Amino acid sequence: MTTVTVPERRIRPRRPGRRFDLRATAMLFGLAAVGLSVVGWVVRMALDVAERRPAWAVVLVLGGVVAGIVCLRRRAGFSPRRVARRATGALEEATATALDALETPTAAPAQEAHGVEESATEAVVDHERLSPDEFEQAIADLCVRDGCAEVEVVGGAGDLGADVVAVAPDGRRVVIQCKRYDDENKVGSQDLQRFGGTCFTVHEADVAVVVTSSDFTAPAVEYAEQCGILCVNESRLRNWSEGLGPPPWAPSDLVEEEAEPADRYSW
């Protein structure tokens, strides 16, 4: 009888699988979030430094490239602890550089802004070239510039004579009618009478003003003096726009000092 021997197969023991650890997973996501926050903060600071001091940005980029080349050459001797120390040092240096850049006063932008303000102040607006809507907006901008609050352009159909309303710095309500006319077309007494019938009773104006890019007729000035309406002609408007004269709601004694006797109510 022949006996056949079958080799015994060795069964490898199975390694126990790792259980899902909620705590470890939460810590992993937390560390990842912190890391992303740190990276985002560093990138934002780097962009700020690059905007304020481009030379520092170039130095940092070159330093990062050199560090990457060194790491590639020494890949065989990679040490996590050494990399962590280098990363920490680089982060501290970048943070210190960014803080220095933020604390250092930038004189050049301030000088540029000052130059822009001067050029804007020196710019002269030709009100005769503006459309009626643009003219109203230009008057509203002057009111805002000189400290008025609640400035609003209300001109249009059914405005009852009011084109711009505002509250003067001293709290008085200012109601302005704008007349964008050419030199040959003056504001007459009829225009003043229509405005005088609504500026005080309907709009409750404390200061009623008619502003024009041309001038007023003598009857219009006489009617304005009787009703207490202030008339700003082209000359007074130019001085007001260029900052050479007071705004219409300025105290009457200041206006009288700068205006000629015949023009006191055509201010």
Features:
single chain; 267 residues; alpha/beta; 2 domains; disordered C terminus
Query: How does CATH name the architecture of the largest domain?
Result: 3-Layer(aba) Sandwich
Strand content: 5-15%
> What sequence of helices (H) and strands (E) makes up the elements?
HHHHHEEEHEHEHH
CATH class of the largest domain: Alpha Beta
Overall mean pLDDT stands at: 76
**In what order do the strands lie side by side in the largest sheet?**
1-2-3-4-5
Oligomer: single chain
Q: What is the helix tally? A: 9
Radius of gyration: 38 Å
Helix content: 40-55%
Organism: Streptomyces thinghirensis
Keywords: Endonuclease, Hydrolase, Membrane, Nuclease, Transmembrane, Transmembrane helix
Domain Restriction endonuclease type IV Mrr: 129-240
Region (Disordered): 243-267
Write a concise synopsis of the structure shown.
By secondary structure, this protein is of the alpha/beta class. Helices cover 52% and strands 10% of the residues.
